[in-house]
Amino acid sequence: MSESTPSTLISLQTAFPSLWFVDHARTPRMQAVCSPGADVHEVRVSIRSAAFPSKPWEVIITSLRAEQTTVQFPVTIIPEKLGHYRLRLEVDATVPGILTQHWDAEVEMLVRNMPRSSQDLQGMLQGVSMTVGEKALFGQLVSDANVHIGPRIEVNTGGFDAALEAVLSRVDAETLGEMRMIRPIKVTDICHSWKSISGLELAAIPAGRFRMGASEDDKEADRMMETVREVTLKSCHWMGSKPVTQSQFRQVMGRVPQPAFDSHAGDDLPVTQVSWDEAREFCERLTQIERASKALPAGFAYRLPTEAEWEHACRAGSVSARYGPLEEIATVAETVNRFQAPGRLAANAWGLHDMLGLVFEWCQDVYAQYRPTMTVDPVNNFADTGALNQPMRRVLRGGSYQDASRFARASARVGEVSGKRSGRVGFRVVLGRALASS
Questions:
Q1: pLDDT (0 to 100) of residue 438
Q2: How far apart are CA 105 and CA 92, in angstroms?
Q3: Is there a single domain that holds both residue 37 and residue 78?
């Protein structure tokens, strides 16, 4: 699997034989293994090949839960043609209401006529890649048939055919301990829009690769802190279409921080005066609430966006410093210069409002120079070496209604201590797979 391939909800393991025989049914076993923490409602596995064009095979597993982890099932295939072929596997895994994942894989197969003697079989085995179990069982059959000792092996076609059938059955039944992982060729996540039971509307953000950092035409960029790098996000996720409002914050936390000004108070206005720690606590509580109510699928959690997720979502495919004309998309000092409800200005291509201007937004990362080696799902948890004796700062993105437009750029970033409270600072949430560390 390439580094840009999304993580799979399930993996497949198989003991598929390498050598098949035309018009002869074989039933090797396969197993689906659930990824840690992810409940999957339905898994559909289909197998097709030019070797058996009239008899494609399909199975549907109605439920595969994280605590169950593994489901085994037999696969019956009857090759119809001689030759070298590829089995094409297509897998669709569904997390109800939130995500459908599709991936493809291929497995090689060699189809021969059924051997009629140990000499036929011995010739077929030359150059065939087999598991240890297959080699041992087929090799024993050839050896026994050639040596001709004991009453168990008779030198006649019927005796050999029966022995071969027995070996084939044992190969398909006894090689489960030699299960091999099937490697996906391509994995595609299809995310659906999501609305939390607390009223937060989240837009689906596709996985992908993008140029993170200062745009080529950006004359206001800090080239040291906005270094360009190619970043890959392996999984789709969901981001709040607007910053969290005071009403939404109160519903989860039971209170709202005292606004900096009386004019900043209002249920539909962005919550401000929120520290990084409080924003993170909001995400954790929201996750707990929705898991307790069974509204949130296992393996997914609300959290703050990483810097890479934030910039990828802000750009929405754009390579410019902003995703639209400043006056149409951003509440900053040079435009509206007024604290107002989110969603009044134009959204970007992925349905996100106020990514630039209105309020700075907390991100998960520690503020530091980008590390060139962190390019796949990057999240920085370490300060620069020169800042080790200073308070750790967290990243803020997007600019605010009181700040100059140079902060309202897709790549612009500033840092503040995690306990910082300000009437210009709020946050928005991401729903995705939980981060390994924070």
A1: 44
A2: 12
A3: yes
